[in-house]
Amino acid sequence: MRLILVRHGETSWNQENRVLGHTEIELNEKGRKQAERLALALKDETLAAIYSSPLRRARETAEEIARFHGLEVVTDDGLKEVDAGELDGLTFQEMMERYGDFLKEWVKDEPSLRMPGGESIAELQQRTWPAVERMVRDHPDGIVILVSHAFAILSIICKAIGLSLSHFRRLRLSTASISILNFGGRGTSLVLFNDTCHLANEG
After folding, report:
1. Which of 22, 69, 149, 167 is flagged as catalytic?
2. Contact 25/57 with Cβ under 8 angstroms?
3. What are the residue boundaries of the structural domains of the chain, listed by start?
4. Which of 10, 103, 129, 141 could bridge to 31 as Cys pair (CB 3.0-4.6 Å)?
């Protein structure tokens, strides 16, 4: 299976550098344009399925892509972003002021560290990976698009290529980026990461 992992387009909270977990926020104008460019970049792929996180920003991105393929977007709760709990909606400065002790622990890269009132990165991976395993089972020879979120996608990539979650913070995904995993008899390969060529010259 060829798995095309797409991060959703930009939202106002992304623009403001706020933590964005399970809060429902729509794409902003730039994000909608990014989704349109994603759709054009992927329109010639022969897809077996399109899966998405049920959160609005991901669904809106997935539905824009689906317009070219005659496919219904299948939502899966396993693809939601990490539950950021009490951090949701905060800027870095606000986190420093209210949750400084947590941030001191966060930079130690311990995957089991749980966000206040939310999930750990390890717990996130424990629900994202089974969703991917179901896709591999159902579409072993197909091309599948998965639209999700930065931390969710990174947790999948780490698991797929055997990268410890202790390296998680060293990876970055841009909004509306494309990454690709190939699943085959010889194992899984990351063949594209954080590609944003389709967004060139965006205003």
Report:
1. 149
2. yes
3. 2-199
4. 10
Please give the Cα distance from 131 to 195 (Å, whole number): 23
φ, ψ of residue 86 in degrees (nearest 5)? -75, -10
8 is catalytic: yes
Q: What is the chain's length?
A: 203
Q: Which CATH number fits domain 2-199: 3.40.50.1240, 3.40.50.2000, 3.20.20.70, 3.90.180.10?
A: 3.40.50.1240
- Among the options 8, 69, 139, 167, which is catalytic? 8
pLDDT in tens, 154-179: 999 999 999 999 999 999 999 999 99
CB 48 within 8 A of CB 139: yes
Q: What is the pLDDT of residues 92-134, one digit of tens each?
A: 999 999 999 999 999 999 999 999 999 999 999 999 999 999 9
Q: Are 76 and 131 in contact (CB under 8 A)?
A: yes
167: annotated active-site residue: no
